[in-house]
Amino acid sequence: SVHIYEVLLDQHILYMDDFSRMRIRFSHRLAYAYIKCGQYDLAWKVEKPMIKEMKNKKRLDARFIADLQYYFLSLRFVDKNRASYELSFFLSELMEEQGECGYLYAWGFSMAAHYHCFLQDYESAVSCCRKALAIFESDSDTLPSVLGQHYMLMGKPCDLTGGFNGAIRYYGKAAALYRTLYGKVSSIYCSSLSALARSYQKYGAASLSVYVFEMLSSLYGKLYAPYNTIQVANTQSLGDAYIAAGDYKQAMQTYL
């Protein structure tokens, strides 16, 4: 994939505008491929001019800028102190440019939440995600899908730090939003339900966990072919939920 993107980028530079959106996409994917191969210096060489250019773009590309900056930070994952410095600098820069309610500033905190999850600093991740959500929820132009994404992001560190109420709240909000946007028979809605069910089970709400896993069994039957790996995994989870609820007979029937 690295060679393919190198060729595509070279051809695009040769025949197209210097910073067309397609060139930025090719550069982004090439840098990501370099990162996966451990070639961080080459990734940064490709990414740096794109970040500089995209910072001059309008609000429409805010998410794209945040993505670029996120992958820039991933170059620094091998050096946590350096990554933390770059992150702080980037957020202060965004605040100066857009203020505390800026849309891109919110994406900066979203990126920071991902980064802190990577470091397993879940309290900081919750703090960053809460700041991002406060901006997104107050902005009438925020896409509902963006809110759903951040509800899921917020649920993860809450879950991992023992914040049962927070995890259930945000996974539940994501599920309700995804159901409205995409309908019940959709993989993204099912993913949010699965996270919700696992949180119920983890914190001892066995009957609720069983209820949601049973719902998922029905939905997965409509989404996927029989014996799909996702269905198999959900069946295992449903059996475990029955055991947690003390219904051993039903658990046995489920496993069989």
Can you put this structure into words, describing what you see?
This protein has 256 residues and is mainly α. 80% of the residues lie in helices and 0% in strands. The protein has 13 helices and no strands. The protein has helices spanning 2-15, 21-36, 40-54, 62-74, 80-98, 103-118, 122-138, 144-160, 164-182, 187-202, 206-223, 229-244, 248-255. The two termini are 43 Å apart. Residues 8-16 have low confidence and may be disordered.
Q: Number of DSSP helices?
A: 13
What overall form do the CA principal axes indicate?
A: elongated
- Rg is 21 Å
Task: Give a count of the beta strands, DSSP E runs of length 2 or more.
Answer: 0
pLDDT under 50 segments (min length 5)?
8-16
* Termini separation: 43 Å
Helix content class: over 70%
Order of helices and strands: HHHHHHHHHHHHH
How much of the sequence lies in strands comes to under 5%
Averaged pLDDT? 79
Largest sheet: none
Query: Which secondary-structure class do the elements indicate?
Result: mainly alpha
In short:
By secondary structure, this protein is an all-alpha fold.
Strands, helices and their partners?
Layout: H1 2-15, H2 21-36, H3 40-54, H4 62-74, H5 80-98, H6 103-118, H7 122-138, H8 144-160, H9 164-182, H10 187-202, H11 206-223, H12 229-244, H13 248-255
